[in-house]
Amino acid sequence: MDIKLKNRHRISGLLAAAVILAAAFAMVELYPYFENESSRSGAPIYEESAFLKHLVNGNYVLALEDAQKEQNKILSPFQYFLPEAEAELKAASSDGSEKSTVTELSGSSSSNIQITEDEGDGENERTEYLRGLRKNSIREFENWNRDFSNIRNSIDYQMIDENGKVILDHAEGRFIPNNNYYVFQAVLHYDELGRMDITCVRGENTAYLLNTLQDFGDKDPMESYYDDYFQRGTLKLSNPRNMTFAYGMSEQQISSFKDTSGNIWTAYENSGSVTRIFIGLVCAVAALAFLFSCMDVNLADRIAILRTPLELVVGIVAGSVAFGAGLTSLVAVTNRGDLYSALLRANFIPKAADIMVKLWNLLWWAVPFAVIYWAVLCMRDVFHIGITRYYKERTLCGLFCGWVVNSLKKLYRYLGNINLQEKSDRTIFKIAAVNFIVLTILCSLWFLGIGALFLYSVILFFVMRKYYIDLSSKYNVLLKATNQIAEGNLEVVIEEDLGVFEPFKKEIQKIQSGLKGVVDEEVKSQKLKTDLISNMSHDLKTPLTAIITYVNLLKDDHATPEQRKAYIDILEQKSMRLKALIEDLFEISKANSNNVTLDLEDVDIVSLLKEVSFELSDKIEESTIEFRWNLPDEKIILSLDSQKTYRIFDNLLTNIIKYAMPGTRAYIDMRKENDWVEIILKNISAAELTFNPEEITERFARGDQARNTEGSGLGMAIAKSFVELQNGKLTVETEADLFRVIIRWPIM
């Protein structure tokens, strides 16, 4: 059943991803349609305010270009359009050193110094203002030139002097004024004083065009940079004089024109095609989300994000819909080729750039559709759990109301649990009631109540003092008991009634029990340390004594070669025994100090156990113990350290060979249970099992208490430590002479 549920959730996720990506893909594929719709809707380009402003500012660009061509030199905008300011700035720059000298030489009179410095400061400020104005005029002209450059190649324009001669032609020889070839036409004339008049205008809305162009022509484009204090009525942009500028756009030019200043976005917004299709797909995604959610009604129970409160869902949905509607600009930029061009400039190959643009658009469109799908799944639960429960659990209002109701219930239960038969509750109630009655009476006595209140305060003082003394005595009893426990007396008993401190009795008893447990553990630890010394002394002394003995025998000159060879074999055996003991001691020390480095990898534990059994096959045959293997046929892959796991199995199987009763059977079983793999090793012990199963995995603990067999007493301890280091669990069970070891590892 659990597998079916997981598959259902997986299918729901795949369906959601498919619906979201399909909707986003549909939006991206409709980009050509959106472009066609935008081109058929909205006002003509020449009615855009920004476009008309660029035309008027273009007059200054063309005038400066003509002047530079005529004078055959580079002219700055400040020099050409503000000649008086340019002359004043040059004069100020040439006189600057002379004025500073005059200021230094006028030192005979302090008043003269003050006047001269004030005048000098004013002139310096004027000069700085003019320099700033020069920078601003150059920067502003660059903006005019950039904006006009964006449209000049898509329109026809001419400059005509006062005699009607065309001095600059960008109309393929056609005379623009009053030419019916042009759908849009604007002829702007500057008189001898630089005042602009519109002599001809043509378009769909001539009144709007006339007023807008005239407004831009009457306004000084540098006006925002003038300072009222420094201008002094002398600074004004010098407009072209006795010059006419004619602009025209044919039907073909209008249809093919794309203004980079933002007109294309307006056209897309005016068409409304992107928004309409987006809203339609939103409805389709919502309907499909509702339909598919009916196939997996328990999805919200497993995914917390689908239990988001309704108010937050509505707010996020509103934001995502607004976000999706705002992606109209993304459609415009993509259709215009800005993203594609940027990627080409970044050295992307054309095919990769095209794919990147589509993926980028797909990602952004997937966001609002994903939010809509998620919102439907959140709100769909109202049909699954009911509107009442949904209101209580899935809305902020319901959650707040539930919190208020629960708080009131707790208050009600608290008041209801006041037991006037309990001494403490009865006392508090009596004190509160008496205090209320006394204060009520005192308040009714007017001025006499002040004296009565004084008397009441005195009485209350003595009553509270008596209560405080009683409380202090009970506190001292409690403090005395805790001090005795701190000094090591864990058998202290509190027999007095502690009043409000009565609950501390149970807590002190818990502390006593905990400390006793700690003491017992410490005693056990000390015993282990003692056993460590005695056991290691015995286990190391035995092979060491044999080594010393046979070394002395080798020194005997009368020993035959055969005897020497036998002595050497025994020395090798005992030295290897000594080496194994020391290695086991190091292994268990590292394991207990968590200083073991695990080299985790995917290990087939079935194959590993078979490999250990194969390595020990000679010893198994010599032991006369019949091993029965019950291992699964399929692989069981776990994330383990293969060397440490090999050591675990080697130690456990070696113990069976050493301590199992000869001629009996040993069983090694392995099976999977849910998310765990369990390995059970069972054998009949040759000696009576008189030890505690929990102690056999301690360091130097041996089932053979007489120590008649070789062993360090560390095999089980090492096995248990290595199992636990790899997130497993090793337990030992005994039943009569049956010895059982159980290892459990989680399957990741």
From TrEMBL:
Record-level Gene Ontology MF annotations: kinase activity
Name of the protein this chain belongs to: histidine kinase
Membrane spanning stretches: 277-300, 312-333, 362-383, 432-464
Organism: Lacrimispora defluvii
Membrane topology: Multi-pass membrane protein
Gene3D superfamilies: 1.10.287.130, Histidine kinase-like ATPase, C-terminal domain
Subcellular location: Cell membrane
Assigned EC number: 2.7.13.3
Positions of the Histidine kinase domain: 535-748
Annotated catalysed reactions: ATP + protein L-histidine = ADP + protein N-phospho-L-histidine
InterPro entries: HATPase_C_sf (IPR036890), HATPase_dom (IPR003594), His_kinase_dom (IPR005467), HisK_dim/P_dom (IPR003661), HisK_dim/P_sf (IPR036097), HssS/ArlS-like (IPR050398)
Keyword Transmembrane recorded: yes
Record's keyword terms, sorted: ATP-binding, Cell membrane, Kinase, Membrane, Nucleotide-binding, Phosphoprotein, Transferase, Transmembrane, Transmembrane helix, Two-component regulatory system
Region listing for Disordered, in residue ranges: 92-127
Entries under CDD domains matching the protein: HisKA (cd00082)
Domain of life of the organism encoding this protein: Bacteria
